[in-house]
Automatic annotation (TrEMBL):
Keywords: Membrane, Transmembrane, Transmembrane helix. The keyword Transmembrane helix applies. The lineage of its organism: Eukaryota, Fungi, Dikarya, Ascomycota, Pezizomycotina. This is Uncharacterized protein. The chain crosses the membrane at residues 63-82, 88-106.
Amino acid sequence: MASKAFFDPMVLFRVAPLVSSTFALRFSVDQYSFLNVLLAQEHREDAKHIIPSYFRIFFRNGIWHIGVLYGVSFGSGIANFFSKPNAAWRWYAAGTALTLAHMAFAPKIMWSIKDLYDDEPKGQGDKHLKKWLDIHVIRSVLADFPAWVCFGIACLKSFQPL
């Protein structure tokens, strides 16, 4: 049996949503940073035609990261909410709700993804990517960052003595 001096499973339980939301927020920032390069003036004309194929590969790989990270954030957030750790449970609830709010953007953003996949009309990849990035930034600012803040506050409060 592992000693709590070296490993306390309750600490892992409490910080899991913060860790996963940190990775998700970092992934969100990376997506913007790496994809926005294709919209830079010096790349834009050449990138119009490669953006759809690049995005298809990028999205197929990234969707698994998103699914796992937001799944862990949501699952561990809801588990912490139901365990009602002192005053932190409200913050876990808020972080969990904001994690779910990330998915509320799916109907709006899926049209941009479809346009990027199909690239209709052809050669408009830059316009489709710009539209996707605009929604992505709004979603990150309104859902992802506040969820991370809430989970951070929840962790701090959950480790305070009763």
